[in-house]
Design brief:
The protein has about 725 residues and is an alpha+beta fold. About 20% of the residues lie in helices and about 35% in strands. Strand 18 and strand 19 form a beta hairpin. InterPro entries: Papain-like_cys_pep_sf (IPR038765), Peptidase_C19 (IPR050164), Peptidase_C19_UCH (IPR001394), USP (IPR028889), USP7_ICP0-binding_dom (IPR024729), USP_C (IPR029346), USP_CS (IPR018200). One of its GO terms (molecular function) is cysteine-type deubiquitinase activity.
Length: about 725
């Protein structure tokens, strides 16, 4: 009927017991064993819920043949009664209870999309052999091991969760973590706490006892450990703020977590300061006076474009950077006399703030405090002709903050990446298209047109990005509140600014006599009219005679909605969802008599959905002139000739007058014009002569704009 796969949801009953010996065993295959009693009992029902394109499977099983059925639905197993397992899986229709009991409500019926798909019956004589007890030894060893392991893991997780409120997670960052992460996993701030060692400690444990755990784990004796509490600053950076004092170290870890953690999550984050002597062994941390400041240092190498952590120092707040230059040179592996420049890394959200630090101004005057980060690099040599991509710390951090790898895809092949480019989120529109043009070897970047990615549909957005229509790359990648890393590109035959002054229309031309549709892409200035479009088309298409009149129609879902006036501007015509159709005006339409009517004629078929009949239009709609007093029999002759339908096929067609989707079938003797009396009907496309017959055109996958290219005839496309 439909030339497509369907799922049949009709009612189909099945019994609890199935006797295949009945009627002299006529349902048994010839090779069946007739010496045994072929009485079968239902053991399980596999159910499919959904349609032909997708759904869900679950099963009703009674493992021991008792009246108790079990429903297995993914990981959920529930007890069910026999009615749920049998009757409710027969399919068919279901009635909803009336909304207003007592009133004469017609019950609302709907098709049940969950029904039995496969049945398992077991022969009574074999029941005991099949439904037997399963001992552990009957289960394969590798499965036993796996099940036991899964059970243990599940139990561990349960215990962990049940006892979570009794424990505090303590995350301890060390110099080793900073060295390992900075310049590789991260560039800003000091550490990613998700990647440092964590301890799960009972809340009432005194902090001093926790230090012994740390000693065991890291091999650092308790007396050489000093812990700092991290703090989130107002500018959203996260830095070590102050060391724990001796009194705090006598308290429980749970109490410390509450004191240090304003957000009340279950974690305590600490920095472990360990000082090393000349022999690189741990020594007692120096006393910290109020004037002492703990600073962290990163070194930037412009030649390699690399940033790395080199260590930390205590400085006096009254001291000046110039006093520690020798130590910094030593950290970087330079000679003591190497000239270096210092910068303070202040913040990185929403934008990077990294300022030059005056070496002769005291730390206090420069507002330097505990936990601050100072980046340094070699001073550029005067007169040096060396040019680096990112010559200083601020430009490098700006680059890192804004860099974005973009996956470019050709708009013609939207599923596969063509190439990737590393760009900056603050690149301008011109910079982005220039990079793309360079990559694909195109001389004129203005011929590149970009289209953004829809994160929800995973498709290109319907509308491309206008020439210089966005300021930055970051604007191109945003879709509502999501950010993508995909852009689509196409190469135009003319520069985009020029193209934007033009309107491109896709017009399907229906030849008066030939059995084909030709699609033309017409490109004209936006101020052009429909008449200009038709004049261009006249030069491209074959007409039945040189003076033939041509018109432009708007077709949507197999209905004609509009004949465009010649003087209508093309700027606002949408060919994305509506089909624009050009055709010759038939001679009979040019000489309409006073009583003649021009009516819409559409093909249709009837489909039942949710137990309601719905009219589905298909095929190519058209206009037809009907004359005063003309009967359906006379109209049919003209329609058959126009559509060139064989007699045998045409006899199967039914004809109806349709108004707002309701068919009123016509007899051959009916006068057609009497149904189309009113000339002022709003939405004339909703009153039409319907031709009911089967739709034999191949089905296409559903798309929003499926109407655009579904033609009955062969299609040729000219760009």
């Amino acid at each position: 009927m439909r030339d497509t796969m369907v799922k049949i949801n009709d009612r189909y009953e099945f019994p609890l017991q199935l006797d295949l010996d009945r009627e002299n065993g006529k349902y048994l295959s010839p090779e069946a064993d007739r010496s045994v009693r072929n009485l079968y009992t239902l053991h399980s029902v596999l159910v499919h819920s959904g349609g032909v394109h997708g759904g869900h499977y679950y099963a009703f099983i009674r493992p021991t043949f008792s009246d108790q059925w079990l429903k297995f639905d993914d990981e959920r197993v529930t007890k069910e009664d026999v009615k749920r397992a049998l009757e409710e899986q027969y399919g068919g229709e279901e009635e909803l209870p009336p909304t207003n009991p007592g009133f004469n409500n017609t019950p609302f019926k709907f098709t049940k999309y969950s029904n039995a798909y496969m049945l398992v019956y077991i022969r009574e004589s074999e029941k005991d052999k099949i439904i037997c007890n399963v001992d552990e030894k009957d289960i394969a060893e590798h499965l036993r091991i796996r099940l036991k392991k899964e059970q243990e893991e599940k139990e561990d997780k349960r215990k962990y969760k049940a006892q979570a409120h009794l424990y505090t997670i303590i995350k301890v960052a060390r110099d080793e973590d900073l060295s390992r992460q900075i310049g590789k996993d991260m560039y800003f701030d000091l550490v990613d706490h998700e990647k440092v060692h964590s301890f799960r400690i009972q809340k009432q444990t005194p902090f001093n006892l926790f230090k012994e755990e740390v000693a065991k784990e890291f091999g650092i004796p308790v007396q050489f450990q000093r812990f700092w509490i991290w703090a989130k600053r107002q500018n959203h950076t996260y830095r070590p703020n102050r060391p724990l004092n001796p009194q705090e170290e006598t308290q429980s870890v749970g109490h410390l977590r509450e004191v240090s953690n304003k957000t009340h999550n279950a974690e305590l984050k600490l920095f472990l300061e360990v000082e090393l002597g000349l022999d690189l062994r741990p020594i007692t941390p120096p006393d910290k006076a109020k004037e002492d400041i703990l600073l962290f240092f990163k070194f930037y190498d412009p030649e390699k474009g690399e940033l790395r952590y080199v260590g930390r120092l205590f400085v006096k707040s009254s001291g000046k950077p110039i006093e520690i230059l020798d130590k910094l040179n030593q950290m970087a592996g330079f000679t003591p006399e190497e000239e270096i420049e210092l910068y303070e890394e202040i913040k990185f959200e929403p934008c990077v703030m990294c300022e030059h630090l005056d070496k002769k101004t005291s730390f206090r005057q420069s507002q330097i405090e505990d936990g601050d980060i100072i980046c340094f690099q070699k001073s550029p040599q005067p007169g040096s002709d060396e040019e680096f991509r990112y010559p200083d710390v601020p430009s490098f951090l700006e680059y890192v903050h804004n860099r974005q790898v973009v996956h470019f895809r050709s708009l013609e092949r939207p599923k596969e990446d063509d190439f990737c480019l590393e760009l900056s989120k603050i690149n301008s529109y011109d910079q982005v298209v220039e990079k793309v043009a360079q990559r694909i070897g195109l001389d004129d970047p203005s011929k590149i047109r970009l289209t953004s990615h829809n994160c929800y549909s995973q498709q290109p957005k319907p509308q491309p990005i206008k020439y210089q229509g966005v300021e930055h790359l970051s604007d191109m990648l945003v879709h509502y509140n999501q950010t993508s890393d995909i852009l689509y590109y196409e190469v135009l035959d003319i520069p985009l600014p020029e193209l934007q002054g033009l309107k491109n229309l896709k017009v399907a031309c229906h030849h008066a006599t030939k059995d084909e549709v030709v699609i033309h892409n017409i490109r004209l200035p936006k101020q052009s009219t429909v008449g200009d479009v038709l004049n261009v088309l006249r030069t491209k298409i074959e007409l039945s005679h040189p003076n033939a009149e041509v018109r432009l129609l708007e077709v949507f879902y197999h209905k004609i909605y509009k004949i465009f006036p010649f003087n209508e501007k093309i700027e606002n015509i949408n060919d994305q969802y509506w089909t624009l159709r050009a055709e010759e005006v038939p001679e009979e339409e040019k000489n309409l008599g006073p009583q003649d009517r021009l009516i819409h004629v559409y093909h249709f078929t009837k489909e039942t959905s949710q137990n309601q009949m719905q009219v589905q239009n298909f095929g190519e709609p058209f206009f037809l002139v009907i004359h005063e007093g003309e009967t359906l029999a006379e109209v049919k002759v003209r329609i058959q000739k126009k559509l060139q339908v064989q007699d045998e096929e045409f006899l199967k067609w039914k004809f109806a007058f349709l108004s707002l989707g309701r068919p009123e079938y016509l007899q051959d003797s009916d006068v057609v014009s009497s149904r189309f009396q009113r000339r002022d009907v709003y939405g004339a496309w909703e009153q039409y002569l319907g031709l009911e017959h089967s739709d034999n055109t191949p089905k296409r996958p559903y798309a929003v704009n499926q109407n655009r290219h579904t033609f009955e005839k062969p299609v040729k496309i000219y760009n």
